[in-house]
Every structure is written in C-alpha cells, then in structure tokens.
Amino acid sequence: MTFPKFSVHDDPGPSFAGLVESFGLAPDYSAVQPRPEDIVHGTTVVACTYADGVVIAGDRRATSGNLISHRNMRKVFPADRYSGVAIAGAAGPAVEMIKMFQLQLEHYEKIEGSHLSLEGKANQLSMMVRGNLQAAMAGMVVVPIFAGFDRRRDRGRVWAFDVTGGRYEEMNYVASGSGSLHARTVIKLGHRADQSREEAVDLVIKALFTAADDDSATGGPDPIRNIYPIVAAINADGYEEASEEEVSERFASYVQSIEGEA
Predict the structure, then answer these.
(1) Domain contains 8
(2) Looking at residue 179, which CATH number applies to its domain?
(3) CA-CA distance, 35 to 37, in Å (whole number)?
(4) Residue 26: inside a domain, yes or no?
(5) Number of domains in the chain
(6) Which end of the chain is more exposed for a tag (fewer CB within 10 A), N or C?
C-alpha cells in the first residue's frame, strides 16, 4: 500500500477528518430532508465526577417519533483509554461521529507520537459537532457529552456541547438528551465532590431512572429483556464499563429503597 503524499499547503497533518475530506469521502447531508418521525434518536446521557475520576452513563432506548425503534442502543463509548463520549440526538450521524472521533484520536497519536490533551480532545469533538451543523439544520441534531480523566491535573472533567459546536466545561456534572432536565436535577441534588465510584454509579442510575419515569423517550431498566443502561468509570487506570450484573444489582437496590419509602 502506498501512502498518499500532500503538498505543504494541502497536508491535513494530524487531522483524520481532513485526511478523509481530501479523498472526498466526507458525508454530504446537503440534500437530505428527512421527516422527523423517520429519524432514530438516542435520548438521555449523563456524566458526573467523583473523587478519583468520572462516571458516564446512558439509557438504551432509541425512538422514532412516538415509536420505540430500539430498546438496546449503545450510547456510551470509549474515546480512548482515558476518555469517553456519550451521544444524544440523531443516532446515525451520532454513531458515525463517534467512530470518526475515535479514529481522529488514534490518528493524532500516530502522527504526533504523543497523546492529545483532554482539552484538545474536547476541542476535536467540538469541531466535529460544528461540522455536523448542516445536517442539524436538516433535523439530524447531534449533541454529545464528553468526559475523561485528566492525567495532568489528576482529576475527572466533563464537557457539554451545543448544536453549533460550542463546548462548555462543567464543574461536576453534565447531561444531554430529552430527559436531561430530570437527570441533571437528580445529580445536582445528590452530587458530592468526594463521593466514591460506587456512590457515583448509584447517582447516575438514580438520575436515569428518574428521567425514564418522567420522559417517555428515555428507557428505564428492563429486567424482562435484561437490558440496563451502560455505565462506565474513567480514572487513572483508564476507561472501564461496569458489568451488567453490577448495574442490575444497583438498580434493584434502588428500586427496593423506593418501595421502602412508599
């Protein structure tokens, strides 16, 4: 295989998106005008910091208009070893964006010989969201959240984005999607900077459960089909998803506590 050669003015450098565009392979949504009910949407995703890092989570439901189109959609992904991203909005462009983001971070590392800083990763994702603006105007909005462990500062950090690509670092927690208002309120009331990883997992589980209770587009725990939200912790040891058994047990424990209060 022969590697492509670029002139000084055309060299995309460490930008994988620029490399793809140079070959004319970037997706073009200029002629796309889908009906809102035809677009599959992912819904609620959340993240919050804890004493040793950050926890990121998302429900599994995807909707098309008033219909449940998927019950086990994955919305939480590792971006690299020390960061993760969760998607809300139009599922197709969102998943495509995440794959491109993962490749971008890997491509940068290979070209530059070093890892991109956590802020640099947030900037890269911001540019990808901005690049999706034309599709967003056609109804395919993608609004992710980004979280990771900053090895330079030795703590977890979280970012929110808007549809224009604006990025906003939040102090302790962030949420996106149709149930984000309910989820964010739960985390706001229960978050502590010194909480443990287990307490943070319990908090995001409670937030997603509350969002599902008040937002029809957010999926709650489904013990019949054995479907539970994806929950991952990111700390100095890297990205690690909680096992399905742990998440189901913590959901069961929370449900029992609610029943005890009733």
Answers:
(1) no
(2) 3.60.20.10
(3) 5
(4) no
(5) 1
(6) N
| Structure tokens, 121 | 């990763």
Q: Assess if residue 17 is contained within a domain.
A: no
Among 59, 56, 98, which Cα is nearest to 233's? 56
185 is catalytic: no
Tell me how far apart the 2 most distant CA atoms of the chain are, in Å.
70
Annotated active-site residue in 43, 49, 63, 210: 43
| Residues comprising the chain, all counted | 262
- Answer yes or no: are the C-beta atoms of 125 and 101 closer than 8 Å: yes
Range of the domain at 98: 38-261
